[in-house]
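Long-time lurker, first post.

We've been arguing in lab meeting about whether adenosine-5'-triphosphate would sit comfortably in this protein at all. Half the group thinks yes, half thinks no, and nobody has a model to point at. So I'm putting the question to the forum: if I give you the sequence and the SMILES, can you give me back a predicted structure of the complex? Inputs are below. Any interpretation is welcome too.
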Amino acid sequence: MDAAVALELKDVTFRRGDKEILHGISFTVKRGEHWVMLGPNGAGKSTVLGFCGALVHPTSGTADVLGERLGRVELQALRRRIGHVNPRHPLRSPLTVTQVVLTGLTGTIETPMRWSPSADELQQAHGVIETLGLGGKAAERWPTLSQGERGRTLIAQALVADPDLLLLDEPSTGLDVAAREQLLETIDLLSETHPELTSVLVTHHLEELPASTGHALLLSAGRVVAAGEVGDVLTSQHVSAAFGHPIEVEHRDGRWSARAARRRRVSVSA
Ligand SMILES: Nc1ncnc2c1ncn2[C@@H]1O[C@H](COP(=O)(O)OP(=O)(O)OP(=O)(O)O)[C@@H](O)[C@H]1O
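Top reply:
Settle the argument with this. Predicted structure of the protein with adenosine-5'-triphosphate, as tokens:
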């Protein structure tokens, strides 16, 4: 497989019971690219993200992740090279920011019993905490953090093991507009601090695309509506087709927005 390719799905189908959820998905993500996956509820975004994260393998077709073919590789080993940010992080203990970030090295939700970090591991955690602007919060505990701080902590946790691929599953969920903007700035910063990193971000909302997004995959009802450079994919025509509603897409100062297309009023003058 081409070393420049991070992810490649070819004609992937996926079945659950007697239901086919994905019907022939193909797309290629090159290393260092930043993709967004967009589509309405039930389009298949989480299922596709499951392949990207080496959580499941296709029913038919092929999925190559970081040079490994799913179905022929030990998924656990591959997952160590992938950082996964899930804002519904099911943490129960009141861990500090540093402790949460360190669970990115142990691959666990909680701190494993009888585990303590080495000096190197602590240094790695502190480095990534600083990068994400959480330096002053390192000792604060999870329950006391704002949603925005939790989001940044989870990105730090995903980055601490120095992954090749970062998956962000609706990272702006539950954030107010200021916290969302801060989080998007943080994500944009990663293309400078981690230039080799490849990322895939899932969202329903065009307003939640980081300015650094270069490519998009638009899904609807288990099929690809369009995939490729973001400017070619996120047209009013494609987005309207994907969401089954007339939508006008706008791109201004690097940011995207969408609203329902309105019929023009015809003014009748006497
Ligand atoms: N385990 C399962 N068994 C049966 N159907 C499933 C299963 N998991 C997902 N589906 C169906 O597959 C389709 C795609 O689901 P998926 O969660 O991938 O979509 P999504 O685009 O992530 O949706 P959302 O935006 O609502 O999170 C949906 O119709 C869903 O009901």
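For your lab meeting: The pocket of adenosine-5'-triphosphate is lined by residues 16, 19, 21, 39, 41-47, 204 (CB under 6 Å). The mean pLDDT is 93. Whichever side wins, do check it experimentally.
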